[in-house]
Structures are given as C-alpha cells and as structure tokens.
Amino acid sequence: MNQPALSVRDLVVHYGRRRRTPPAIDHVSFDIAPGETLGLVGESGSGKSTIGKAVLGLQPPTSGSVLLDGVDITRASSRQRRVSAIDLRVVFQDPYSSLNPARTIGQTLVEPLRVLRVPKPEQWQRARAALEAVGLPGDAIDRYPSQFSGGQRQRVAIARALVCDPKVIVLDEPVSALDLSTQAQVLNLLADLRDQRQLALLFIAHDLGVVRFLSQRVVVLYRGRAMEVGDVEAVTQRPRHPYSVALTAAAPVPHPAEQEARRAAREALGIGVAGTAVAAAAGCPFASRCPLAVDVCRRSRPPLVPAGDSQAACHRVGEVPALLATR
Ligand SMILES: Nc1ncnc2c1ncn2[C@@H]1O[C@H](COP(=O)(O)OP(=O)(O)O)[C@@H](O)[C@H]1O
Ligand code: SF4
Ligand SMILES: [Mg+2]
C-alpha cells in the first residue's frame, strides 16, 4: 500500500478513569488507502463509534496512535485539529440532529469554510458545487433541513463533509436511519464520490450487508477487539472466525439458498445470539458464546494470525472451515 490516508495503530480506549473495567477498544490497528473503504462491523456496543470518535479527536485514546496522511494527530492541540479537520470529515447516522434546523443548507455548508477563512465568494461557490456533487438541486442552498426528506438530509450531511475537499471521511452508520431504496442510493453516491475523489472512507455499520456493498476490506469487531480482518469477499464468503460466521449467518442476503446455507452454518456451529455474559479479561472475548471454546480460550488471548484469505483471532481458527464443511 502507498502511504495510507488514515492509520490507526494499536488503539486502546478506556472510558472513565478506572482501569478495572475492560477497555472499550483493545489494541485495534488498521490502514485505509486513498480511494479505499474499510468497513468496521460488529454488533451494538462492540466499539465501532468509539473508534470513530478516537479518530476524530472526540475521545482521547488511552494509548495507540492515529495518523492522517502520515501525520500523527492522536494528541493534536485544538489548533492543529482545526487544520486536520480540513482533511478529516464525518457523517453521522442521524441527519435530523446533526443539521441545525435554524440554518439554511447554504449557511450549514459554508460554516466549515468560514472557520478555514476561505474568501466569501469562494465559500458559496464551493457550497453549490458540493450540493451538485451529491445530486441536490441548486435551490437547496436557500432552504431549511425541514424541507428535505431523510435521504436528502443525509446528502446534505455528505455535502458538508465534501465542501472541505477532505482526504478521509468517517461514516458512522450513515444509512441506518434510511429506508432500503434510499440506502441504496446513498451508498451508490458514496461509492461514486470515493472513486472520483480518491476518498478514504472509514465506514461504520452493524449491518454486514451494507458494509459489504461499499467496503473493500473489513474489520470485524467484538467487544472492542478485532476478531477478523481481511478482504470483504473473504470475510463474508469464507469467514474464518466463529464470530464472523455468526455475523454472516445473521446478515440478510438476497438469495434464499444462500440465506439457508448460512443459517445451517450458524446452527452447525451452535452460536447463540448476543450474549450478556462478561468476557474473561485474559482470554477470548467470544468464549462465553462460542461452541468451539476450550480451556485455552478462557486463559489466553488469541492473537490475529493469517487464516485462509484473511486474519483471525481464534485459537481454533484452522478447524472452522472443516466444521462448516462436515455439518
Ligand atoms: N461516553 C461513554 N462513556 C462510557 N462508556 C461508553 C461511552 N460511549 C460508549 N461507551 C461504552 O463503550 C462500548 C462501545 O460503545 P460504542 O463505541 O458506542 O459501540 P457501537 O458504536 O459499536 O455500538 C459500549 O460498552 C458502551 O457502553
Ligand atoms: S479462541 Fe476459542 S472461544 Fe474464541 S472464537 Fe476461537 S474457539 Fe471460540
Ligand atoms: Mg455506534
């Protein structure tokens, strides 16, 4: 890979001061190249948004680092952050609460440019160009968020990210609040913009089907740890970690036969749905739900190791394909 647009190195995030609770993020690393989407997938509470917040400087990491285009911004001052904010933008799930209802779309779009002291005529020119890039009509600039549908508001949020001409965009569940056909339109728009502008996207979603659509590579997160990392096709078609098997089995797919095969795979592995049992601090966080768990799983933490076409953190990683095949 050329210089990554975004690098996350050995990230650890603890909420609060007490170190007795397990960290929300536990030694997670990944790179995203220009023009690439990395999907971050996992069930609710797995730490996806926490990684997004740490990248954006909204949550200070306990340790580890975040590099934007090779520059360490982990502990950047607020002044340095204003500079990196040009290159690093965000789109959140909820366009209703992330857009100020009292401001016109134009006012919202020029706001970051005002902060950057872009000359005024250029601010409005760039705002109009950003609206055009996301497929909104030119007169949108004088209208208010309430005059738009959910999908259109999310386009406005994307335009607000684009207006600074960033290198990296963090997308935290950007289509989760939209209906299916609007989801597809917004995902297509994001893919087009990424390809045209060589954007690096950190794409956060709980829905593997959505992640699969947009991402080239994927990190499967469970309780703050990377369970499997690899090309999206490998992880979704030939998962090597028992948790990825559970996740792929749960994801809706368009073909009933494939859906059935996945359900059977899930049953073969006997993996339950979201558990509440507290993970042993030392061992594999998935042990309380994993049908393959043995003593060593509860005692020692499995490292990420090459497995098939991806990398997986499982002591019994080599046995997963055979188990699936012999069900
Ligand atoms: N501000 C916070 N203070 C304390 N704990 C938090 C805070 N935000 C998130 N958490 C905890 O960190 C874990 C990961 O949360 P989050 O990153 O929001 O997960 P996800 O986005 O995958 O649903 C959860 O256990 C959650 O309860
Ligand atoms: S390390 Fe053990 S408990 Fe964890 S996923 Fe692998 S087999 Fe299951
Ligand atoms: Mg979240």
From TrEMBL:
Lyase as a keyword? no
Q: InterPro entries given for it? A: AAA+_ATPase (IPR003593), ABC_transp_ATP-bind (IPR050319), ABC_transporter-like_ATP-bd (IPR003439), ABC_transporter-like_CS (IPR017871), Oligopep_ABC_C (IPR013563), P-loop_NTPase (IPR027417)
Alphabetized GO MF terms: ATP binding; ATP hydrolysis activity
Query: Which keywords are on file for this protein?
Result: ATP-binding, Nucleotide-binding, Transport
Q: Which Pfam families match?
A: ABC_tran, oligo_HPY
Q: Does the keyword Nucleotide-binding apply?
A: yes
- Could you provide one GO biological process annotation from this protein's UniProt record? transmembrane transport
Which positions fall inside the ABC transporter domain? 6-248
Family from the record: Belongs to the ABC transporter superfamily.
> Entry's PANTHER family?
D,D-DIPEPTIDE TRANSPORT ATP-BINDING PROTEIN DDPF-RELATED, TRANSPORT ATP-BINDING PROTEIN
- Protein name (Swiss-Prot/TrEMBL): ABC transporter ATP-binding protein
